[in-house]
Specification:
This protein is an all-alpha fold. 71% of the residues lie in helices and 0% in strands. Helix 5 packs across helix 7.
């Protein structure tokens, strides 16, 4: 029996893919906040593509073992932005968008490898390894894109939606954000709730990746 939530033979590839996806996601938050005038993340060394500065060990172990986890959140002080609400939305949005872009780039490179025959130029082991890597890069980056847009704390979708709400409503939501986090955890870890809440969202990500892959296969 494997200790992991993932197939044991795929685990090294999954770890690599998640390190790339999490690192680019958090870097996008940190870099955009820094460019908008908040140097909090910069001073903590988070404007970096070094995976170690973004890694939360507990969150990473949980995603391997239980299928759900997190990276280290990027600290953001919106009060330092010239236009706090608009720039906060952008800073929150660029994280999921970075995963979408990574997923699309992975599809394009994968399709080029297939169409040109480069994917099959090496040994069968190399071909299988490259195929698995690209499939995981595509799958998990699209899943992270849609997953992080769920409007519940602590996800980016919550921070995006909250910026469009009246100040009084936002204040009340912030006071009760812990309840939203509890609801979110219940949705993730209780199978019947996950089946009617999280799973359809993840299915959307899977469908998006398939449709975009099919599109690029047809035009190359």
């Amino acid at each position: 029996m494997s200790f992991s939530n993932f197939p044991f033979d795929e685990l090294p590839f999954i770890i690599l893919v998640l390190l790339i996806a999490f690192t680019v996601h958090e870097f996008a938050h940190a870099y955009s906040a820094y460019k908008f005038g908040d140097d909090t993340a910069y001073r903590e060394g988070r404007v970096s593509l070094n995976p170690m500065v973004h890694l939360d060990w507990l969150g990473f172990i949980l995603i391997i073992v239980a299928g759900f986890g997190w990276a280290k959140p990027v600290p953001v002080r919106a009060s330092r932005f010239k236009n706090p609400r608009t720039m906060s939305v952008i800073v929150s949005l660029v994280g999921p968008l970075s995963n979408l872009i990574l997923g699309i780039i992975s599809i394009i490179v994968y399709v080029v490898f297939i169409k040109t025959g480069w994917l099959f130029a090496g040994s069968e082991g190399v071909t299988n390894a490259l195929t698995l890597f690209f499939e995981l890069m595509i799958r998990y980056n699209f899943l992270l894109f849609v997953f992080n847009l769920i409007p519940l704390p602590p996800l980016d979708g919550y921070r995006i939606v909250s910026e469009f709400l009246p100040l009084r409503t936002r204040f009340k939501l912030e006071q009760n954000a812990h309840w939203g986090s509890i609801i979110f955890l219940l949705m993730v870890f209780i199978p019947p709730l996950r089946a009617v809440t999280i799973s359809p969202v993840l299915q959307l990500g899977g469908n998006m990746s398939v449709n975009i892959f099919t599109f690029f296969m047809s035009i190359f």
